[in-house]
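Dear H.,

Thanks for agreeing to be a second pair of eyes. The structure we're designing against is below in token form, covering all 341 positions.
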């Protein structure tokens, strides 16, 4: 009897040990939701390699499931609410799609606050870490980045000067860029970028401000075949992107898996994302040049006019931010200068 009891206890202990090992080996599934197609370069060159690295460094214990094109439902401006509320675990989103909600971080969406994506993304991440953590207290922020300097793409009118922008209806991604277009006499039409092809084809807008890299995915080379470059050390505009994680989901991870996430977050990922977006510019430009579309480089004298007319947007942002406005702008400007040189 004693022998039978001993065998039973041994068998139970073995079963419990095996069960514990199975639990340890189970995957943590992280759902990553975003708004662009799976074929977009950011999924292929940033999100998928990141997901693979997370899986490898976690010993297979973390699996990142990617849901492009809003497959989990909702609209692009709702992504940050979805990740905050636990409807998805990670979102790649634009804070600027929700006007006025994240004012500190929007400093990088003011006119002429971009050099290239690599430098600007690092400056943005450093600025967040030093000055804007409070705006994202509801999230576990993985990293920020920007796209490369945006251009002006139009259906019919060629933009050679500041005056040529006057009277155009142009798609704008956020309030700051919209205000800059208004200062130039244009009528901004706000919409997430996936809605742009239909808006162009139906004549809802005369054109858009977007970087080269997104042109092929949206067939802008066909829908808005006139392209205007804004030269100089800094481009006309960029947009802020964020990879944000549900805070409770992150906190539920064991320490070693938190470390895997942390080791693949922060400014190095900002730099990596920026590099990928700068490289993607080359493909977008090639598609346009191969088609023979006209590309205009706005003259330096006209760029001075554009800077003068849009300066009011920066001044208004500084005023709206109150006592810390000038200091925040100066900090962002200094970080951009640091990482651009």
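And this is the sequence the design step returned. I haven't edited it by hand at all.
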């Amino acid at each position: 009897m004693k022998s039978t009891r001993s065998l039973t206890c041994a068998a139970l202990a073995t079963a419990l040990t095996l069960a514990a090992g199975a639990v340890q080996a189970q995957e943590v599934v992280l759902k990553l939701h975003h708004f662009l197609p799976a074929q977009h370069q950011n999924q292929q060159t940033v999100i998928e390699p990141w997901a693979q690295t997370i899986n490898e460094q976690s010993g297979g214990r973390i699996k990142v499931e990617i849901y492009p094109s809003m497959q989990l439902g909702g609209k692009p401006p709702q992504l940050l609410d979805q990740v905050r509320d636990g409807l998805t675990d990670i979102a790649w989103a634009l804070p600027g799609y929700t006007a006025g909600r994240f004012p500190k971080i929007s400093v990088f969406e003011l006119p002429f606050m971009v050099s290239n994506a690599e430098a600007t993304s690092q400056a943005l991440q450093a600025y967040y870490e030093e000055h804007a953590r409070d705006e994202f207290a509801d999230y576990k922020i993985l990293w920020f980045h920007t796209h490369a300097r945006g251009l002006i793409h139009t259906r019919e009118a060629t933009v050679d000067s500041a005056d040529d922008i006057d009277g155009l209806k142009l798609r704008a991604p956020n309030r700051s860029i919209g205000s800059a277009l208004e200062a130039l006499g244009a009528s901004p039409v706000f919409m997430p970028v996936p809605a742009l092809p239909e808006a162009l084809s139906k004549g809802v807008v005369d054109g858009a401000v977007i970087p080269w890299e997104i042109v092929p995915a949206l067939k802008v080379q066909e829908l808005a075949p006139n392209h205007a470059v804004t030269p100089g050390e800094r481009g006309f505009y960029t947009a802020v992107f964020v990879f944000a994680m549900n805070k409770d989901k992150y906190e539920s991870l064991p320490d070693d898996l938190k470390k895997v996430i942390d080791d693949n977050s922060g400014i190095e990922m900002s730099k990596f994302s920026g590099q990928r977006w700068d490289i993607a510019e080359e493909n977008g430009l090639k598609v346009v040049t191969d088609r023979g579309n006209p590309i205009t480089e706005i003259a330096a004298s006209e760029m001075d006019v554009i800077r003068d007319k849009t300066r009011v947007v920066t001044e208004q942002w500084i005023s709206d931010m109150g006592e810390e406005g000038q200091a925040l702008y100066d900090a962002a400007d200094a970080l951009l200068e640091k990482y651009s040189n």
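Two observations from my side: The longest strand covers residues 139-146. The chain is about 50% helix and 15% strand.

Warmly,
E.
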